[in-house]
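User: Can you recover a sequence for this backbone? Please restate the input before giving your answer.

Assistant: Of course. Working from this structure:
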């Protein structure tokens, strides 16, 4: 079974406490941390690049089936026994065709396509501006999507063309899972191995941020949004409300195999609510289950059906992969 961060990473390394170490699976009980960008950078001729990894999404109704095919072709999303792996593409096509009409209608209800490319591009622009203000005038931020344009391969081509010598790889999933960050990093590892002459550590110094759910800034931002919503309620509403975190689910088999996602999302929600205040009631549930296998529970739709009265539903604790 594949490691949660590919243990064979030859091109990618993660920086922790000022030293370079090989990327290791989170399940190996080694939390990787990355220091904040310094306000006074060392003056060198090295060129800094940041690669933001994200899910991607169809931008037009006609993109939906192709997007779904790419999604379900991923062996980290649809896991088949080794003997059936040759038919992964065929099954992905069948599932994509079956699900496309419903998914297309959902995207049409929000304007015809996913906003994820636009939002991620805005994040990239904001990060580039912040880095430039901190003294990195030539820093560039790239966007690489897993299942739709701009694909990770396209972003890597741009990075290579620009001659980046220091690369920070940042998946935009706060919590780590093999089905999100792990899948994107697996693709990146494959790209680097196919051109090891360019991407070896002598030519490009890599830093990989595997997760960031426990960073104070992230938790404080989430807590501030929740507190702002609570402040708008009446006293009567506050007395009966519950903050509901709805996170994207994964099959229970992933957790049983060592995926740290459930533990990280639980720790994240707990940390956020400690900042909001211990007197506030909250719950965590999971959405977007697919197929007959058992997924993380409780399920969002079932929890919603039990709630009555005034509640705050703080949806999408993480970037959804549905």
């Amino acid at each position: 079974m594949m490691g949660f961060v590919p243990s064979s990473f030859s091109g990618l390394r993660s920086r922790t406490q000022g030293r370079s170490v090989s990327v290791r699976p989170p399940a190996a009980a080694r939390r990787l941390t990355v220091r904040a960008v310094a306000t006074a950078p060392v003056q060198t001729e090295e060129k800094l690049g940041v690669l933001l990894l994200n899910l991607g999404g169809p931008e037009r109704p006609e993109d939906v089936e192709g997007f779904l095919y790419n999604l379900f072709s991923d062996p980290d999303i649809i896991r088949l026994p080794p003997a059936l792996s040759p038919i992964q593409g065929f099954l992905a096509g069948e599932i994509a065709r079956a699900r496309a009409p419903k998914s297309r209608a959902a995207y049409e209800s929000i304007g015809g396509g996913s906003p994820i490319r636009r939002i991620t591009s805005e994040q990239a622009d904001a990060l580039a501006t912040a880095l430039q203000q901190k003294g990195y005038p030539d820093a560039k931020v790239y966007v690489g999507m897993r299942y739709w344009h701009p694909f990770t391969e396209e972003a890597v081509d741009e990075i290579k063309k620009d001659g980046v010598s220091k690369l920070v790889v940042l998946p935009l999933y706060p919590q780590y899972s093999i089905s999100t960050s792990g899948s994107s990093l697996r693709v990146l590892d494959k790209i680097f191995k196919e051109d090891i002459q360019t991407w070896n550590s002598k030519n490009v110094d890599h830093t990989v941020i595997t997760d960031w759910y426990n960073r104070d800034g992230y938790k404080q931002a989430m807590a501030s949004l929740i507190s702002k919503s609570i402040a708008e309620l009446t006293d009567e509403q506050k007395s009966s409300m519950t903050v509901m975190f709805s996170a994207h689910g994964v099959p229970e088999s992933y957790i049983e195999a060592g995926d740290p996602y459930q533990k990280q999302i639980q720790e994240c929600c707990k940390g956020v609510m400690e900042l909001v205040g211990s007197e506030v009631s909250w719950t965590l549930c999971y959405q977007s289950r697919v197929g007959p296998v058992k997924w993380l529970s409780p399920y969002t739709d079932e929890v919603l059906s039990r709630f009555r009265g005034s509640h705050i539903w703080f949806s999408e604790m993480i970037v959804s992969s549905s």
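That completes the design. Confidence is low (pLDDT under 50) at residues 1-11, 13-39, 315-322.
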